[in-house]
Amino acid sequence: MYVGHVAVALALKTREPRVPMVPLILACYGPDWLETFLGFWHGRTEMGPYTHYLPGLFAGALAAAAIYVVVFRRPGGWIILSGWLLHWPADFFTAHKGLLSPTDTVGLDLYDLPPADFVLESVVVLLCCAWYARTFAHSRIQRRWVVAMATALVLLQALLDYGLSQYDAPWNPSLASHVWRPHLTLVAPHAVGTAARMPLALVPGTSTTSARWPAIECVG
Amino acid sequence: MDTLLQILGMAKDWSARARGFAFLLMLPLLVVSVADWRIRRRR
Questions:
Q1: How far apart are alpha carbons A13 and A219 in whole angstroms?
Q2: Mean pLDDT across the stretch A143-170?
Q3: What does the radius of gyration of chain A's CA atoms come to, in whole angstroms?
Q4: What ipTM does the predicted assembly reach?
């Protein structure tokens, strides 16, 4: 998601007006900024999965909230935490993001359906701008600034969806890993061979309980 | 031309691609920061 993240920041701002806007927006784009920062050294494509999968997301959110509380010494650390964590559900609509593993990704992939992405993100921006205006913009001039902000954000989204779109990849929404893997393997008892049982044996095993034990030579 | 390639993410160097991505992230930050500053200054 592109401008949708800033819409989340506007909505969170209405919950806690004491949080400055710049750190709030940085937190809402936090995984992207971290990915960009790490990308200067290791390549953004390589680092992206680690900043966006759930363990990386929670680690980044906790670190960002702690830094905010220590540096700014203001209330609202939970807003910074929420902004960072909400990055994942927002990105779920537009791309593929990792769950517990950076390689097992899910998402609705609307980036490959630009008109749908544009409509979704524009609607989110307009709703959050209206919410922001109801809280902070009481005069006509203030409401004009909100309208200008919403217009600029929608134009930025259009630029991304239509101006900078470079791939003609097919739309590929995914709610699960494309490679099927069993979570629990059940094997019929008769299919269990010696090789399968051996790792569990505490003593050298026999093929069956009726088989003869190997002769043990007693010394002494 | 090089700047355009960076923004498009098509630059050959991944560091240049990261700079292009950072530029894209800066745009909404600037728009909303300026608007919020103007709106809240007039309260």
A1: 83
A2: 88
A3: 27
A4: 0.77
